[in-house]
Design brief:
The protein is α+β, with helices and mostly antiparallel strands and about 120 residues long. Helices cover about 35% and strands about 20% of the residues. It is built from three helices and five strands, in the order ααβαββββ.
Length: about 120
């Protein structure tokens, strides 16, 4: 007999079961996947906020906006997930599949990466 990974109760059923119920499975996975500290939680919140802003301003997959508009919505340019340097020397900053590139006169090109 095996015991539930969450509550340590005996498991009845299939041989490969790890949890006694959906509730225990959810509780166990929530504990594992939660942000481990405030620093990590704050960074993830900033990344999510930046992503939502880019998604809102770029519904078609390619558009332009201003630095002022991004700032007014609360965009934080210090937080992104990766950088893409193109062969032509352009630098794109991405938040997952949503990206932006600095143009002239404080304009930004917003793009969506196909995944």
């Amino acid at each position: 007999m095996k015991n539930c990974l969450e509550c340590d109760e005996k498991i009845v059923g299939r041989e490969d079961k790890k949890f006694c119920s959906d509730g225990c499975r959810n509780a166990y996975n929530n504990k594992i996947n939660k942000d481990s500290n405030n620093y990590m939680r704050n960074i993830n919140n900033k990344l999510r906020k930046n992503y939502r802003i880019l998604l809102e301003l770029n519904p078609e997959g390619k558009s332009k906006t201003t630095r002022a508009k991004l700032f007014s919505k609360g965009f934080d340019f210090d937080f992104f997930t990766n950088i893409l340097n193109t062969k032509t020397g352009n630098t794109y900053y991405f938040l997952y599949d949503q990206g932006y590139m600095l143009l002239d006169n404080d304009y930004y090109m917003l793009v969506k990466k196909d995944i």
